[in-house]
Every structure is written in structure tokens, then in C-alpha cells.
Amino acid sequence: SRVAFFGRMVLLFLAVAIFEEVAVRGIIFRQLEHAIGTWLAMVVSAFFFGFGHRGNPGATWVSSVAIAIEAGALLAAAYVATRSL
Q1: CB 76, CB 46: distance < 8 Å
Q2: What is the pLDDT at residue 78?
Q3: pLDDT tens digit sequence for 18-72
Q4: How far is CA 41 from the centre of its chain?
């Protein structure tokens, strides 16, 4: 049914979002922060996050930059402020 399909899709996207956060901020950002400092790690991890979405349907370099700024940099800043994923 449509409800079951919608439920499965929500769970799938939730799992993908959790994986992205753990991979980018939980692993990549923390390692970069240790190696190159907080500010540069925020920029580099935001770049990876934004351009990691380049393969999405309809994605452009503009949308990748937007994702890098609004999700990559802001979520990295939230992580730095709270130290919690």
C-alpha cells in the first residue's frame, strides 16, 4: 500500500541522514579538526558534504555549494557548539 511504501521511504531517508552525519561530522570532521583546526575543518568537511550530493538527480554546482553552506557549514557549527551529533 502507499502508506507502507511511504513509511519505508521515510525510514530509508532517515537511515541515510544518520549515516551522512556519522560519516561527515562524526568521522571526517573530527579527524580534520584534529589535523588542521576547527575553522578549516568546517570548510573542508562542508565542501565534502555539499559536493557529495553532486550525484543527486537535478543537482548542479550551485545546489552543491548551497548544500555545503546551509547544511555542511551550519551543521558543523552546531556540532562544534554542542559536541553532539
Answers
A1: yes
A2: 92
A3: 998 889 898 999 999 999 999 999 999 999 999 988 988 999 999 999 999 988 9
A4: 13
Cα–Cα distances (Å) from 85 to 8, 22, 48, 61, 76, in that order, read 24, 7, 17, 27, 9
List b or e across 30-64, with b for residues whose CB sees 16 or more CB atoms inside 10 angstroms: eebbeeeeeeebbebbbbbbbbbbeeeeeeeeeeb
Looking up cell 568546517 gives 42
Instruction: Confirm if 68 and 47 have CB atoms less than 8 A apart.
Output: yes
The cell numbers describing 35, all together, are: 589535523
Q: Where are the beta strands (DSSP E) in the chain?
A: none
Provide the whole-model pTM. Answer: 0.81
